[in-house]
Specification:
Blueprint (H helix, E strand, L loop, with lengths): L7 E5 L6 E5 L2 E5 L14 H24 L3 E13 L2 E12 L3 H11 L3 H6 L11
Antiparallel strand pairs: 1-2, 2-3, 4-5
Length: 132
């Protein structure tokens, strides 16, 4: 099992439902959705999870197309999710622009389904929690 290169840390923001997150040199925030009492200015945890797949899909396609010298100009990914009955279904749509032929488009779709976050999300998760 490989380890993360650095821990992702978070801390509560006093007087708010928001949290500050950090990993390496990057910093970002999250909050509850407005319907759950959040302010609405930051993504909620589900948005962060969904955005991880969107970002990984785009980055993976860009790297692969560059390596294969495909004429990919841009990638846009739209994702919604449905939750219920013990499942979390992500519905992803991938739009690509550029002078791509049918085989290149099919190859890129195959690669989208093999991006690291896609593979992780289809794997079995184990979460160990302990007091610090």
């Amino acid at each position: 099992m490989s380890a993360s290169s650095y821990p992702i840390t978070g801390r509560s923001v006093a007087g708010s439902t928001a949290v500050e997150l950090a990993g390496g040199t990057a910093q970002w925030r999250a909050d509850l959705s407005p319907s759950a009492g959040g302010a609405g200015g930051d993504p909620d945890p589900h948005d962060l999870l969904d955005s991880a797949l969107v970002a990984c899909t785009i980055l993976t396609l860009q790297l692969y197309a560059k390596r294969k010298q495909y004429p990919l100009e841009s990638v846009e990914v739209s994702l919604t999710h449905d939750e219920g009955g013990g499942s979390y279904r992500m519905n992803r749509k991938v739009a690509m622009t550029g002078a791509l032929d049918a085989q290149q488009r099919a190859d890129l779709l195959r690669v989208a389904n093999a991006c690291p976050i896609h593979k992780a999300l289809q794997s079995r998760f184990e979460i160990a929690t302990e007091l610090a």
